[in-house]
Design goal:
This protein starts with a helix and ends in a 43-residue tail after the last helix. The strands form 4 sheets. It has a 7-stranded parallel β-sheet, with helices on both faces. It has a 6-stranded parallel β-sheet with strand order 8-13-12-9-11-10, with helices on both faces. Strands 14-17 form a two-stranded antiparallel sheet. α3 packs parallel to α4. It has 4 domains: 204 residues, Rossmann fold, CATH 3.40.50; 184 residues, 3-Layer(aba) Sandwich (Rossmann fold); 107 residues, Arc Repressor Mutant, subunit A (Orthogonal Bundle), CATH 1.10.10.10; 70 residues, HRDC domain (DNA polymerase, domain 1). It has 28 helices and 17 strands. α13 links the parallel β10 and β11. The longest helix is centred in the middle third of the chain and has 19 residues. It has 649 residues and is α/β, with parallel strands linked by helices. The structure holds adenosine-5'-diphosphate and zinc ion (ZN). Adenosine-5'-diphosphate binds next to α4.
Length: 649
Amino acid sequence: MTSTALRLSEARTPLAVLESVFGYPAFRGDQRQIIDHVVAGGDALVLMPTGGGKSLCYQIPSLVRGGVGVVVSPLIALMKDQVDALAAVGVRASFLNSTQGPDERREVERALAAGEVDLLYMAPERVTVPATAELLDRLPVSLFAIDEAHCVSQWGHDFRPDYLALSMLHERWPSVPRIALTATATAATAAEIRQRLQLQQARTFVASFDRPNIQYRIEPKNQPVQQLLQLIRTEHPGDAGIVYCLSRASVEKTAAALAEHGIPALPYHAGLDARTRADHQSRFLREDGVVMVATIAFGMGIDKPDVRFVAHLDLPKSVEGYYQETGRAGRDGLPSTAWLAYGLQDVVQLRQMIDRSEGDATYKRRMSQHLDAMLALCETVECRRVQLLAYFGQQSAPCGNCDTCLAPPESFDGTIPAQKLLSTIVRLERERRQRYGAGQLIDILLGKRTPRVEQLGHADLATFGIGAELGEQEWRGVVRQLLAQGLLAVHGDGYGTLVITEASAEVLTGGRIVRLRREVARPTRSARRSAPADLPAAAGPLFERLRAWRGATARALGAPAYIVFGDATLRGIALTTPTTLDELGQISGVGAKKLEQFGGAVLAIVRGEEPPAAVAGDDAPADHEPALVPAYDVPPDDEFDPPPPDDRY
Ligand code: ADP
Ligand code: ZN
């Protein structure tokens, strides 16, 4: 028995496991209550934001209760990393999935029978086949953890039909506690999880959905790639980040543009072949400072804690989507940026997508409501965080860490520009039976004699040239804000032409004042290296040396850098400069196993010596080649038909 395993068997209280295995001094938020409840055999439904610390809520009860904790996790591509991360702290974890050959699978089954496995990861489609159920019948199962539980919800974009069958857990193993976890905050999704997983009796724990370390910023889109480059160069040089785009084509284009400017950017979307996707994902996880440019196909279940920024170059379709995607920044709690650039074209495009979609009227209405809520968040003059949390039913005060708090936008009386624009639309419609998109309308208002204006005779309109007080960008801002306020609409003709709404009439007759926000210069944080911003200058060089050692060690182990130590832990070491193993063990994130494995090297670096060369230990995987794995699991018997991987995975 290794010394770590020995410590583990002695450390049977939740707090002792937290300290000795994970190296953390205290529980966060509701972790303690959740863990106590599950340890006592209760069922739980946990709603907690990304980075909140959900994993410990089932890992610790499983270690404390003894036996095998069965973790249902949707993406087999990520199981290996989850298991590696546990192995790195000395927890005996395994998975069963179709990437394994029969020998490997038999070995896991043997280890299970011998009581050598603390946590077992499986995809939902595997748990529910008879062979697996019979295997589990023979084991002391400590609990079932259902991760990403919102996958049971048919309304979310992560719906996985296999999750529906998980209600059988309760029927077959009524005495085994179940804990379902999700970062989705809406009450409707929670109700659906409760009902579909038969968790009506479960205690529900709702954490605050605030992510205080994330700075939310939304700005008008002018030259998106230039704006993005500016963000990366001035605030996030050398940092890992995710850039979301709506289409595969814009993913490719943006990744290429960033790469041209020397930023290590990789594309990720469902149109790439599986090997390329696996390779890019693996590089993003393993290498420092890679920027992933992706569609929303990328991100679920990615546990990388040091993603320093999430940028959106297109408008997300809903506030839920925006929150989930931005939430992938800063899981380690260090300062991070959520930045969105959006423009008029986004609104038009999303409205058209809704109109053209195949759903029925109810579906379209729902999608429209989602878009309206997203637009309201974009155009608000109040704190973004207050509005975001209010959307999830949580009250808060202005945060001081979003663009509207840092540089409160001015609003101005935009009634006259609005009237000029609306009356141009009305005249074209009444006098000429014509409808146009924003570009032509703005040309008319600005009095531009373009070939199209000449050809259509638009210079003869009474409103030709009456809008010279604003520039083209400002006019686009007016159109965008009128759309967001419901004072303009996109016609369903599929050409993105603009029409007035019922509410516009009031503006035209002077019965309604239109407030618009003036676009102001956006605040930026000062340039910095990837060392956490608040690290004193004196600690910087040590942090960088620790970081270099971590990179080399991770490469030798074939593991992501954060599996060695997170940024927050390196920061703690750089600040406290421990001289003994005992002192090092006090730092958050340094548990018994890591102290044993890396303690000597870290102390040597702190003393200013060259650390011993990193060598791959017993735990090291045989190679670093990204495994080519299907998104869904394929159990041995042919009892079901897995749906093909699609855009979501
Ligand atoms: P989630 O699954 O909710 O997104 P994780 O379980 O991945 O979050 O935890 C996010 C990060 O916070 C991880 O790096 C984890 O090790 C760390 N963490 C979790 N609980 C604690 C704690 N009590 N003290 C310090 N760090 C913690
Ligand atoms: Zn704010």
